[in-house]
Amino acid sequence: MNTKVPTSINTVAEDQFGKRLAARLSAGNGELPHDISERLRVARAQAVAARKQAPQLRTAPVVVQSGHTLTMGGSWWTRIGSVVPLIALVAGLITISVMQDDDRASELAEVDSALLTGDLPPAAYTDPGFAQFLKAENASD
């Protein structure tokens, strides 16, 4: 993968785009009144002059792969900064899941220890008569 592109290719593409845009903007000038067309001409001249005076900003890196051009906006810090919240979210969800699993396991362990250390054998809890006995006892209280 080649990350360096000659600036002449970028300049040619920008020039072609600028010429197409200027032609598109100038297409309807014939129908405009003279004063409006003069104001547009002056505004264009001012915009071109301001563009020539503006300092050159750092352009985004360009990646060329098998003849296709892809512009990657922003720096590495910007991309890392946009991924960090996603990583934090995933880490938080995993932490919540692990904590819930631990809570469930400790609750089940408490129930198991209560069953095994209780006065009744575990088979008594599965007896339908014992369930009726507990319901009747709770109703009388």
Automatic annotation (TrEMBL):
* InterPro entries according to UniProt: DUF3619
Keyword presence, Membrane: yes
Key words of the record: Membrane, Transmembrane, Transmembrane helix
Q: Where are the transmembrane segments?
A: 76-98
Name assigned to this protein: DUF3619 family protein
What organism does the UniProt record list as the source?
Variovorax guangxiensis
Q: According to the entry, what is the taxonomic lineage of the organism?
A: Bacteria, Pseudomonadati, Pseudomonadota, Betaproteobacteria, Burkholderiales
